[in-house]
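Pair request: fold both.
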Amino acid sequence: MFSADWFFDLDKRLRDMGLDSDAQTFDEIKQNLSCPKKLSPDEFAEQAIYVILAGGFSQKTAKKIHQKIINYLVNNSFNYNDLLNIFNNKNKVKAICEVWQKRHDFCSEYYSLCDLESKMCYLQKLPHIGKITAHHLARNLGEDVVKYDIWIQRLGVAYTGNIALQEKIDNKKLLPEIKKACDDMFEHVVKETGLPRGYIDVVLWKACQNGLIKL
């Protein structure tokens, strides 16, 4: 595990299975990480809304609901109850409404920040975006960061070979020793492959989710 051949084999198998996507395709993610583009307020909101929806849902379900919501928002007058009819989750719909209504301010503020730490702190303040999901959103916005979710935490621990660390894995609170294990793993795979951390992250996450990596 964790060699270039291992990683590129996972990448190929996912592509062969038609599983090479998150909110964007693998190729789009790789291109965006290599050469980030500045998004419009609508595009910024679309990415934030996808991350809000993705928590707790399969990617297939999230993408389906996301498409319906975005189609509604760009083609209709805004109506909270209409959105509830599309997706019956009051907390997430409330967050989606706020993101869409304030998308110009949110987008402008994000791009006014110059350093990654400030951007990450800002994204965590958006409606229904937490510390871990902020990394997901940042990556989809073109920042070369990783989402330290449960799969990546388990992989990081596997990389260290320190079984005792398994007890410290927590999907709600990223502990410093677990983060270091993940960062060490990404540093190694980056050196092996020459690819951005954010791209390695989405491939490894997808491979874990679909059982190509057994943990």
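--- second member of the pair ---
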Amino acid sequence: METILNTPLRFDKWEVPNRVVLQPMEGCDCGEDGSPGELTREKYLRAARSGAGIIWMEACAVCPEGRTNPGQLMLTEENLPQFKALLADMRQAAREAWGGNPLLLCQLTHSGRQSITPMIAYRHPIYEETRPVADENIVTDEYLDILPGKYAASARLAVEAGFDGVDVKSCHGYLFQEVLSAFTRPGRYGGSLENRTRLFLDSIRAVKAAVPGDFLVCSRLSVVDMVPKPYGFGTTEENEVDLAEPDLLIQKLVELGIPMLNVTLGNPYYNPHVNRPFRKGPYEAPESPDAGLARFWEIEQHIKEKFPTLTVVGSGLSYYRAELMEKAEAMVAEKVCDLVGFGRMWLAYPTFFRDYLAGEFAVNKCCVACSRCTELMRHHCVSGCAVFNPTYKKLYEERVACKK
């Protein structure tokens, strides 16, 4: 099939075989030591066979205290062989299935407020309505000072494991993203924009200094939190989009040599309808899915127009279902973004892109935007598509549905 999605893209020192990105989807299915579990391996071998040009692997904690759950990935010296084996098997699976060589990225993270023991940037009354914390949970400046070194150490391990690059993650309310909205925090990580961006930018500098020049350093960024200022980044006190500070931050990223930005919005712990518009979810969303999808389109297009040299990964596609590939084609053709990212969609229908190229795209296999994959995670289960994958469907019936 003739399609813009199947055209290669070269940016800076890297080339990808097509415009499709599989977004990071955490499964909570790793070993207690952070190594990939059997379900982790199965998931990523499906991803490798998908035909996608980039596989943006799920959150990988840079330190034990930064893990969001005992089943989160964490790359260490001790489990390095397991990561090497998984990546080698993924590359072999891709060659055998579609003859390709996808870019494999490691998403480095610190879970912050969502860590097993919460580690927060400041007291946040909106979040604390559902997950109370105390002043003792506020991390010190001295603790934040050591994190760039932890990110650099994890990045060096990612090089050794065989990844093509790392994502210094700042999104969805985790620690780096929360620090961006630390307007009320005293000290060198709060108040001014320079202070609030210090941790994120210093960590990028540390990572870039720790890895070879041909190793990709990029970021997934919640450009706007859609949480009212002073508790959200990129928004006004009335919770309207304000791109003044995000634009200044992205300009700094470009100046630091970040060639690719994966755009996301919102915070799934506060407003999951923003970054994952749903047909059925745990509450009635205050806006229509169309409004949320339009916000993605407008913000991604704004970034691409303002920073034309930056390679932009678009998000917010899985809801479209029957129009999925048509919308994805349009986003690239109309220069909204350079690459299109699919999250929930690839958990539900891993072969969607190869089927599309073969003229066999099946709408009835597409993600139904029901939020069950998220519900599994919230119930402290391993997470996957509970509609189409028998393993997770059975688990959902046993652990979630029975409690409703």
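Observation on the second member. The longest strand covers residues 54-61.
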